[in-house]
Amino acid sequence: MNEPEDIEKQNPPDLDAQETVDSTTLVNTNTTSYDFVDYTPPEKVKILPPAKYKLCFLITVLVLLAIWLADEANVVEFLMFGGWLSPQAALFVFLCITVFVLTYGALDLMVAVFKFRRSNKNGPPKVLGIGAWLKAPRHTWMYRYQQNLLVEILAVFIRILEDGFRMFDAPPCPRNATAKTIPTKCKNPCAKGKTEGCRQEVLKIEHRIDPDKIQDYNKWEDRMGKLISESATGLVSVERRSYTSEDGNEIEIIGLETETTASKDISAEIGGLLRVIKLTFQDIDCLNEWMVLPRRRLLMNDLQRFLVVPDVIQICLNRELPDAFTDLMIRQGESVPNLPPLKWKVWWLITVALYISINWVSSFMAHYYEFWGLNGANIRIQDLVNTPIVVIVNTYILLPLLLFVFDHWTKRTEAEAKVKTEPWRTLYNGFQSIWWKTLLTFAYYGGMAIAWIVMANK
Predict the structure, then answer these.
(1) Transmembrane segments in this chain: where (predicted)?
(2) Domain residue limits at 224
(3) pTM for this model (two decimals)
């Protein structure tokens, strides 16, 4: 077997917890040497879309305002055109107009308007507002209390709120490296024009542990091992090497007891104990998804207390947010795509999903209005109950179901990304100017408000 080649590194970082990555092929892996280099996040980092409950909230606010103005201005009745369209057809037309305004203007405008900067003496101004709230990472505090039944139940509930029901997730990367079928999101282009995911990526992790905290590190490693088995998609193998001291002697740890080949107390080790772990992934995409997993980040933060010198690996997420509807079109279980879906496809699929959701919810809400004593309530009170339910059903059930069928259709191609001719560019990408978005939004909401005022004064 070939010996690993030494790599010259200029000014290597003085870390005691390092993660490095290596690429090799599936062919003849037994005779391939591993050359490790420091892990560097890709230019376009695999990140998760905003939490679903946040998108739900934004959409619900704007839809409630639209319904209120439309009811007062009798918009749906007007769209029947004196009987040329049925009430259901007029409702569908109203949804088309409303979703178009939200997709191409109102949702983006809402994020842009509610954006504030707070001065920071120690650095650049801190950005606050809806955009910063949407970009905030997933909640991780509840994973610290995995032994508590109530907290585990709460963690499941929060995970559903943030990412939806897992039964709607896209198929994960295969754990078997020889699998014949590899999902599109797990494929990585290889050399010589091959397109199947043929390049394995080996993540080498080095932890230099404080000997006085070896028992705590053992418990941390058990938690990380459980997470790896549950969430590391595309994982091919895990290799754990024995602990080694500063002078290279192996130290075997059995449970919470320690034995050393040098027969000395590990607490006397200067510089800590070195632990090397290698994780082999199907390809770089699966590795990147593992690196940005929220629960992995939480455990890595917990790890710092047990190390001689903390780990400094950090992935900076700096994403330009699209509208909330476009983020909902990202299939569950997948990261944010490099190329967002075409806005006209988002508009159409959201409209269809909302129309189905409205009719579905309407079929059973009469029972609950009676059960909750809301039959005689003001129409606005009923809207406050009905609209959030419609948006939730659309976000957590209808759209994920439709994406099982239409996900491939919503993917943007490289050719579509290069379109510069108007009006196709605007139809594909939306308005680039905030002023056009403002004009569209005020024309829609302002037009209904004016119609309401005129009808009220008659």
Answers:
(1) 53-70, 90-114, 346-369, 389-406, 434-455
(2) 17-40+174-282
(3) 0.65
